[in-house]
C-alpha cells in the first residue's frame, strides 16, 4: 500500500524519501524518482512530513520507538502521519508523547485497498489538529479522493474501526444470504441483481457478490487484515464499554478463515466459512 501512495506523491511533485524493511519496494521507489534511507530515523532527518503505512500496532511502535526509529529523527515542527490501521488507544498515547517533542501527529487510516492506493482514490479518516491537516492538505489530496477530519487524536482510528465493523457485517450478511439462496434453489445471479437495487444495496453486493458466486476470492483486501482490524475494534469496544455482538461474531468467522489457511483470500471469502457450516457451495455454472 505504501509504495503506490509514495508514487502518487512523486507524481504530485513532492520529494519523497522512503524506507522499507524489504529492498524491492525501495528499488521500485528509486526507479520512480524517489530516494531511500537506511532507517526510519534517517527518513525523518531528511523530511518535514513523515508518512507511515504499516500492518499493525506493534509495527508502528517499533518503527517509531525502536532503535533508529522515528523518535531518533523527528524534530520540533514536524508532522507525523500514520496511515496504518492500529489501536486508537495506542494512537492517543503515541500522539501525546510526540506532542512533548513539538511534533504533531495525524492518525489517518485509509480505506480503498490496493486499487485505491494505486489510483490515488483512497478514503482517509483523519484524527488530530484540524489546522495541521489543513497545512498538509496537498499531501493527503495526492493520496486520496475523500479526506475527512474526524476529531482529535485517535478519532481517525475510531472511524476506521467503524468502517471495518460495517464492512465485516456486509461481507457476512451477503455470504449468509447467498448460501441461503443456494440451499433454497434460487438463481444466485438473479438474487444478486434483484437485491442490489433495493434496501439491501451495499458495496459488497455491487463489487464482490458476482465474484463470490463464481468462487473468485482473489484478494483486494486480505481476510487476515480484516481479522486484525476486527480484533482492534473488539478490543476498543471492551475498553470503551461498547457492546459489539455482531462484530464479535464476524471476528470469530474471520478467525476461522485464518485457521483454515484462507487468510490470504479476499475478505469476501468469509462466505467459504458459511459454506463449510452449510455443507454446500453457493456457485453458478458458466
From TrEMBL:
InterPro entries per the UniProt record, alphabetical: 6-PGluconate_DH-like_C_sf (IPR008927), 6PGD_dom2 (IPR013328), 6PGDH_NADP-bd (IPR006115), HIBADH-like_NADP-bd (IPR029154), HIBADH-related (IPR015815), NAD(P)-bd_dom_sf (IPR036291)
SUPFAM superfamilies: 6-phosphogluconate dehydrogenase C-terminal domain-like (SSF48179), NAD(P)-binding Rossmann-fold domains (SSF51735)
Domain 3-hydroxyisobutyrate dehydrogenase-like NAD-binding: 154-273
Swiss-Prot/TrEMBL keywords: NAD, Oxidoreductase
Domain (6-phosphogluconate dehydrogenase NADP-binding): residue spans on this chain: 1-151
GO MF annotation terms: NAD binding; NADP binding; oxidoreductase activity
Superkingdom of the organism of origin: Archaea
Region feature Disordered, mapped onto this chain: 15-34
Stated name of the protein: Tartronate semialdehyde reductase
Organism in which the protein naturally occurs: Halocalculus aciditolerans
